[in-house]
Amino acid sequence: MVSSKATSVDQYLADLPEQRRAILQPVRQMVLDSLQDGFVESMTMGMPTYEVPLSTFPDTYNKKPMMYCAIAAQKNHNALYLCGVYSDPELEKKLRDGYAAAGLKLNMGKSCIRFKQLEQLPLDVVAEIIAGYSVAEFIQNYHNCRKK
Fold first, then answer.
1. Residue 2: inside a domain, yes or no?
2. Domain range for residue 113?
3. How far apart are CA 124 and CA 94, in angstroms?
4. Is residue 56 a contact partner of residue 80, using CB atoms and an 8 Å limit?
5. Would you say residue 68 lies in a domain?
6. Residue 112: count of CB within 10 angstroms of its CB
7. pLDDT tens for residues 12-66?
8. Are 72 and 31 in contact, with CB atoms under 8 Å apart?
9. Three state DSSP letters for 2-45
10. How many Å apart are CA 4 and CA 122, to the nearest integer?
11. For the chain, how many structural domains are there in total?
12. How far apart are the two ends of the chain, measured CA to CA in Å?
């Protein structure tokens, strides 16, 4: 399910096969429990996203809400997108070190962590990373990255 036509996260999860839903529901709950105040959950680009709303920060390069993280059931894997890690080398190191300490292999693109089973995702490590940014800090990081 690369892109969904669901209009809500609950519908997105309900449309998933039971096995995929059993993996992504706890990931969603971990994200919701970890986010600092100000981020909102929505459906963007056919997947559940957690973003800075335009009412908080309208000055994005593409005039769309700034995505902080997202989850998705892709064709051959599940994915957790962590935009804060993509733009912060210290957070990326923390993520890599957390995977190593958990004895897990990290399968990651620029911001995408790929996993097939829930056990391949160290929820405590990822929760700490997601909790690591406030909306204001994420906006400041955005400005710092755009200056380069």
1. no
2. 9-143
3. 12
4. no
5. yes
6. 17
7. 999 999 999 999 999 999 999 999 999 999 999 899 999 999 999 998 989 999 9
8. no
9. CCCCCCCHHHHHHHCCHHHHHHHHHHHHHHHHHCCCCCEEEEEC
10. 26
11. 1
12. 35
Spatial strand order of the sheet with 47-52 comes to 40-44, 47-52, 66-73, 78-82, 112-115
- Check: pTM over 0.85? Answer yes or no: yes
Asked if residues 127 and 30 have their Cβ atoms less than 8 Å apart, the reply is yes
CA triplet 43, 20, 99: central angle to 5 degrees? 90
102 within some domain: yes
Helix, strand, or coil (residue 84): helix
CB 50 within 8 A of CB 70: yes
| Domain assignment present for 148 | no
CATH code of the domain in which 28 resides: 3.90.1150.200
Cβ–Cβ < 8 Å for 6, 15: yes
Q: How many CA atoms lie within 13 A of 16 on its CB side?
A: 26
